[in-house]
Amino acid sequence: MKVTIQNWHSIFAWHWDVPGDEVCGICRVAFDGTCPVCKFPGDQCPIGKFFDCLFCFVILRSHVGHVLTFCPAIGSCHHSFHMHCILKWLDTDTSKGLCPMCRQIFTLENSNNKEVFEALSGRPSPLEEGILEQEGTPV
Amino acid sequence: MLKIRQLQKEKQKNQEGSGHVVNKASPAEIRIGKDLEELVLPPTIKVEHSPNDIKNLKITIRPDEGYYSGGVFKFECSINENYPMEAPKMKCLNKIYHPNIDVEGNVCLNILREDWTPVISLQTVFFGLQFLFLEPNETDPLNKEAAIELNKDRKKFARNVMVSMRGGYVNGEYYDNVYS
Ligand SMILES: [Zn+2]
Ligand SMILES: [Zn+2]
Ligand SMILES: [Zn+2]
């Protein structure tokens, strides 16, 4: 059977809200794309799931290991990278846990991402206690 | 007949499979490609590579000032699959008298070692390399004798560099002619 697409309606467009550059400083690929390692994520994680995930961060969190590597990791220093890219860097000895841009200890700005970070790296996020406390206080 | 067709199909599939692997750029190659695209170099730095291998680059530095002015220094820059998590490896192909480059061609440049981060681009690496010829330094030396001379007596160091660059002996060690 042959299917010919005659027209389509786009319902929505999405875009990561990332401060500064639109590209990951490590792989130089746009955040709206995937990091180059994750072109075909995990165990045949279908692209469809990826779109589901964008609607709901709760679902997103349950896809740990597949889809989550797409989401940008925004540092408290306001430098952003693909989650996958920054995790790979922080895993090296040379990194000493520092942000590749400003050489401050890399900590995540966003608490959603903190859980992602821990789940993916299998270790506590380097999020400072001070920042956790700040989140509880009204701004 | 059916079997032959099946075999042919399988063969085709395998070929396609292997061809795909060869053609697809690896993450490291994608990043190297971007770095090379964005290169803006002065006439003193030349970068070459064969069309099908962007992971091994030939660098030529021709300093137009400083102790090493007028020399032609060739380097091999090899980049592995871990780039940019790992720094490129730089090797000097000439045997030269330089405090930060040993007689085997190993290069001591902070951004290629302890100060490497994955946001550093090849552009920065090549400028760093050129900077070693404009400002050789005596901290953390690879050629100790050269470093001591630079620290002690700059005029003598300059003379030694001149002698070595023409192809000659300094402190019993023969160095390559770099005026070709
Ligand atoms: Zn990236
Ligand atoms: Zn990835
Ligand atoms: Zn930073």
TrEMBL record, chain A:
Task: Give the UniProt keywords, A-Z.
Answer: Cell cycle, Cell division, Metal-binding, Mitosis, Ubl conjugation pathway, Zinc, Zinc-finger
The membrane spanning regions, by residue number, are none
Does this UniProt record's set of keywords contain Transmembrane helix? no
Supply the Pfam families for this chain. zf-ANAPC11
A molecular function annotated in GO for this UniProt entry is:
ubiquitin protein ligase activity
The record's annotation in Gene3D superfamilies points to: Zinc/RING finger domain, C3HC4 (zinc finger)
Which GO biological process entries does UniProt record here?
A: anaphase-promoting complex-dependent catabolic process; cell division; protein ubiquitination
- Leader sequence range is none
The cross-references to SUPFAM superfamilies, in alphabetical order and at most eight, read: RING/U-box
Q: Which GO terms describe its cellular component?
A: anaphase-promoting complex
Every RING-type domain range: 53-103
Question: Record keywords: Plastid included?
Answer: no
In Swiss-Prot or TrEMBL terms, this protein is called Anaphase-promoting complex subunit 11
What are the leading ranks of the lineage? Eukaryota, Fungi, Dikarya, Ascomycota, Saccharomycotina
TrEMBL record, chain B:
Enzymatic reactions? [E1 NEDD8-activating enzyme]-S-[NEDD8 protein]-yl-L-cysteine + [E2 NEDD8-conjugating enzyme]-L-cysteine = [E1 NEDD8-activating enzyme]-L-cysteine + [E2 NEDD8-conjugating enzyme]-S-[NEDD8-protein]-yl-L-cysteine
UniProt EC number: 2.3.2.34
SMART domains xref list: UBCc (SM00212)
User: Which InterPro entries has this protein been placed in?
Assistant: Ub_conjugating_enzyme (IPR050113), UBC (IPR000608), UBQ-conjugating_AS (IPR023313), UBQ-conjugating_enzyme/RWD (IPR016135)
Quick one: a GO biological-process term for this protein? protein neddylation
Q: Give a yes or no for keyword Transmembrane in this entry.
A: no
On the tree of life, the source organism's domain of life is Eukaryota
What is the protein's name according to its record?
Answer: NEDD8-conjugating enzyme UBC12
